[in-house]
Structure prediction request, 529 residues.
Amino acid sequence: MERLAGRIMLLWGPKRWLAAFLAGAVAVFSLPPFDFFAVLFVSFTILVWLLDGANGRPDAGVVRRHFPAFWTGWWFGFGYFVGGMWWLGNALLIEAADFAWALPFAVFGLPAVLAIFYGLAAALARALWSDGLGRVCALALGFGLAEWLRSFVLTGFPWNAIGYGAMPVPALMQSAGIIGLYGVSALAVFVFSTPALIATRRGAVAGLSIALILLLVHVGFGYWILSRTGSAGESGLVVRVVQPSVDQSKKWDDAERNRIFESLLSLSREPGEDDRPTHILWPETAVPYLLTSNPDALTRIGDALEEGQTLITGAVRQETAGASQPTRYYNSILVIDHTGQIIAAADKQHLVPFGEYLPMKSLFEGLGLGIIVNAPGSFTAGSRRQTVSVPGNKHFLPLICYEAIFPDGMAAAGPPADFIINVTNDAWYGATPGPYQHFRQAQVRAAETGLPLVRAANNGISAVTDGRGRVIDGLSQDVVGYIDVPLPGKIEKNRNIWRSEVFFWSIIALLLVGAVYSRYGFILRTQLT
Prediction:
């Protein structure tokens, strides 16, 4: 192993960048639908050895000295994000005549931007680099901060954070309820990097021992939590999740709207095998009409519901402020009772740049660019997130589409939530890893908060999980159908976001101490003696 480490460390130029790119690309196999987390031991071990040899010129400035480390981390991140998010390009092929030209920007442009965070992580780590265990601490420190920054910089996009690779099953998701996704990510990088110490030997015993302890705690805590909590009982609600699997290319076709609407109504009216559903859930923008200007559609919905039943659906909501003000459109969740009345609504807060709105609108419109989603205009973001009341004296936390990937988006005004509603339309991405990755991230939100998750996706993956992230029932991709599930109760341990932040920053502080002590401790001890 020493010989292999030496050969990797001495790579330079294109060979170094290719090795880093491949190490990042291989790490993708830790994510859904593969869930082979062991590859991260290979990827991060190679990254450590590459950074061992990423020496800048001693006479260069402070910034330029760390360029080799930055580019090593950047190529690692570029491989990781291209390998893990290439499927984004599929959305541009739905209307290929208008958007196919932008395919390289989706497949390579966004990964190139996201890779900057991993480049900065590597540069920071290299600034604190040492020969022993401290360099593993430094790398974990850099990646922990990088994943945290990815959650809010440039509106935030923490998709496929490294921590998800360490949480392939519900038992391994429970740690996120204590230290949060970014805390799991930082410690995961530490654990996955420690095999690199075997080649250099210095700090290997201590590093591998700490990694083994962390791994045992991660696994043991999860299984202990699942065995201790068991079932949380039932909420008294029976939910029907409808998955229509509408072809995205036909969704907004005028000739198809009636057929889509009738299919949704038909699936909702189907008699259940056991208890009658009290609440029916349709996916994001499932209704192919503006309901506020189409009373006939609301009447049809009311006729399809039995007395006491409630429909919760994704829909475009229209709001007209006045003759002198432009009409606003919202990507919303609407709650409709059995009389066909809209009794509650929640608007999407975290919109997708270029998908639902155009950042720097005047600039990009001047270049002939518009939003990808077929809508009357750009969407307007909702003012704030708050829980939504539904019949049965229950409240849900509304998460529309990729709002479910933001751990810090779980806070909401209003009464405490009893469950999470996540509506989405992943048909944009076809039969790719994208929908599996999206579902996993929503599943972890349930494990973090202790709230059951009810998820309706146009073409999958639709599912109901309990408050530990365990799947009770679901529908796989492209299946047309529904599931009826008695909704479990919430687990009274709802994640304290403030507490998770304290744990995260405590982990960052410990990693910083380890990195600094390893690098400068020898000098300090020499001076003291």
